[in-house]
Amino acid sequence: MKFSKEIKVALLGIVAIVMLYFGYTFLRGSDLFSSSNTFYVEYESVDGLNISAPIVLNGVKIGTVKDMYILKDKNNKIRVTLSVDKDIAVGDSTIASLSNSDLLGGKAITFFLRPNTKQFTGGETLTPFVEKSITDMLTAKAMPVLGTIDSTLLKLNAFFGEDAKRSIQATILNTQATTEAVKNLMVANQRNINRITTNVADLTSSLKNTEQKFSQLATNLSQITDTLKRAPINTTVRQLNTTIAEAQSMIKKFNQDSGTLGKIMNDDSLYRNMNASTESLNALLQDLKANPKRYVHFSLIGGGTKVKQADNVKSADKVRNANTVENTGVVGEVQNK
After folding, report:
1. Strand 60-71 and strand 77-85: pairing?
2. CA distances from 245 to 120, 237, 260, 265 (A)
3. Distance from first CA to last CA of the chain, Å, rounded?
4. Where residue 15 falls among pLDDT bands split at 50, 70, 90?
5. Is 59 exposed, middle or buried (0-12, 13-18, 19+ CB in 10 A)?
6. Domain residue ranges of the chain, discontinuous segments joined by +
7. pLDDT digits (tens, 9 = 90+) for 238-290
């Protein structure tokens, strides 16, 4: 049986169209040889999600995204059509999460299955959830910072006006002039600077020598400390305490009237007697100066002793006037004998 060219061309076109359809369907991720159920889910935004994106359950692909369109009557939400394998138990507790599939911003649908109270058979709308990507978190953190930086830059631009620029230029010129003046001053005083450097070096050397002396002094102090440590300090302290106790006991006895020194120090009768004796001795000396012949008589011929007047006479050759006479030769007048 022969076919005309027209029939052959028509059959070839039909085969090409069928192959194109199946190829397009395959490229969209649809499995031509497996049955699936269709479900829907609605999101506010589906940035990064494409048709034929995978639907994943525990890391395993269980379906693909078939279609996406805008719901104008629901504030422009996006309805996503999902094709899910029939052997997956989808119900009213299933969550369809819009998550990241790679680091470049690609999206996928991840299913989270929980115990269901109602089993879905297809055509139902699932519970949506959107996971924040790293880009979204960085954007949320960076936007306030970028706003602050932008306002800071605006303030800096306002601050660095023409007057500020002229002030900065003048400051730079003054700094350059100051630097030049310092340079000239350093060149003019190079000799003094060298001398100061030499003095500092000498001072450092002197400090080094002083440090050595201090080290020797520290060694000597350490030796003295060791010597004192080995010395019988406890015995010395006990002896010193004993001496102090004896001195305190002696002072206590001095303050009492029992001993001789205590009576001398505390009884004023000795003082009064000594005072009276001193006064009598002073009176006697004064009378001796005034009447020396009354107390002393020298005779070149007869010898012996003569007393004209006295209160008490123990021994004399001649007595003219006396109160008491014990032994005498000639008595002129005696009051009490």
Report:
1. antiparallel
2. 110, 12, 21, 21
3. 212
4. confident
5. exposed
6. 1-33, 35-134, 164-231, 298-337
7. 888 888 888 888 777 767 666 666 666 666 777 777 888 888 888 888 888 88
Six token digits for residue 59: 């890391």
pTM across the whole model: 0.38
* Residues whose CB falls within 8 Å of the CB of residue 190, separated by 6 or more in sequence, listed in order: none
- Residue whose structure tokens are 């996503």: 80
Among 41, 103, 126, which Cα is nearest to 77's? 41
**Nearest alpha-carbon partner for 79 in 16, 21, 126:** 126
Contact (Cβ atoms closer than 8 angstroms) between residue 320 and residue 307: yes
The size of the chain, in residues, is 337
**3-state SS record for the chain:** CCCCHHHHHHHHHHHHHHHHHHHHHHHCCCCCCCCEEEEEEEECCCCCCCCCCEEEECCEEEEEEEEEEEEHHHCCEEEEEEEEECCCCCECCCEEEEEECCCCCCEEEEEECCCCCCECCCCCECEEEECCCHHHHHHHHHHHHHHHHHHHHHHHHHHCCHHHHHHHHHHHHHHHHHHHHHHHHHHHCHHHHHHHHHHHHHHHHHHHHHHHHHHHHHHHHHHHHHHHHHCCHHHHHHHHHHHHHHHHHHHHHHHCCCCHHHHHHHCCHHHHHHHHHHHHHHHHHHHHHHCHHHHCCCCCCCCCCEEEEEEEEEEEEEEEEEEEEEEEEEEEEECCC
State the residue for tokens 């080290």: 215
**Positive or negative, the Cα torsion across 238, 244, 250, 255?**
negative
With cut-offs at 50, 70 and 90, classify the pLDDT of residue 69. very high
Paired with 80 in beta bridges are 41, 68
Q: What is the pLDDT of residues 75-116, one digit of tens each?
A: 999 999 999 998 888 999 999 999 887 777 788 999 999 888
62: its two tokens = 């269980």
